[in-house]
Amino acid sequence: LEVDRLGNVNDYLVVGTSEGDVHFLDLSRKGEITCRLTVSKVAEISMIRIDPLRARLVTLCQRTLCVWSMEHPKVCVREVKLREDLSTMEVAHGQLWLASKSGSLTSLRLEDGGTSAVPAIGDHMGAITSMESNLVLDHLVTGGIDGRLKIFDWQKTLKVSLNLATHISAVCWLNDNGDLLSASGKRLYMIRADRCCDTYRKQSHRELYRAPRVRALKATELYSMRGGPVMDVLLTGEPYPVNLPAGSLYSSRPNTSESAARGSPGRRTGRKALVDGGATRACTPNDGDVRYQMK
């Protein structure tokens, strides 16, 4: 990929096509295609993931998983043939986590291609529909059609299993305190970390899920969508706790005189989130003011 005289790499949009190609679009040049990678001539690209720390691009085409060098985009450094169909995958800590439609979870080491299956006790009873990692908490959360949310550490040890008793279409970390946001049908739910873990410690994120827990849990419903069912949820940025009205979608920006007067630490921007009444608040641009009220 192109690097300027100062050593900066341009911003790219990586797109997988139904023709089996991967396009690198240079956003600084109005989306000009600067590189085209042919992965397959007979099948479409179903998933792509990037590991920026190791400069690796991962593509999934049918049941063939390929790892490419971002420094030399046309060089395939590893190819893996899968035994079953994947529903989603996630890159974290040099590992590629593979979630199957049968409910099993497997990790693939990007460096040497070694694989390690999660113990049977950690498997879902049906397809895994969503998965996201949290590099601050060092945990991975999964959700499936069996109605369960499961949290694993990087050693693939099951730490928490929550039964929401409903089909889970999407799940993500709401903040770095360990709270979760999940979607089921037309509804969004928030699950507080201190409700699903007896060892919740606000000062020690890494000990948040130290003791395994398995329990049924009634989540806090945040919002009911008026349109179609929710298929995916995604939050970006880094949150801090603030006090906001229940059922709000909000954002904030770095520390200003007003936010400093409230005692907010003012961290970096870019997050939008939903909150419930009286629980941990996530946060971040516009001084924590409510932009959209969800009635």
Automatic annotation (TrEMBL):
<feature type="compositionally biased region" description="Polar residues">
    <location>
        <begin position="249"/>
        <end position="259"/>
    </location>
</feature>
<feature type="region of interest" description="Disordered">
    <location>
        <begin position="246"/>
        <end position="295"/>
    </location>
</feature>
<dbReference type="InterPro" id="IPR036322">
    <property type="entry name" value="WD40_repeat_dom_sf"/>
</dbReference>
<protein>
    <recommendedName>
        <fullName>Anaphase-promoting complex subunit 4 WD40 domain-containing protein</fullName>
    </recommendedName>
</protein>
<dbReference type="InterPro" id="IPR015943">
    <property type="entry name" value="WD40/YVTN_repeat-like_dom_sf"/>
</dbReference>
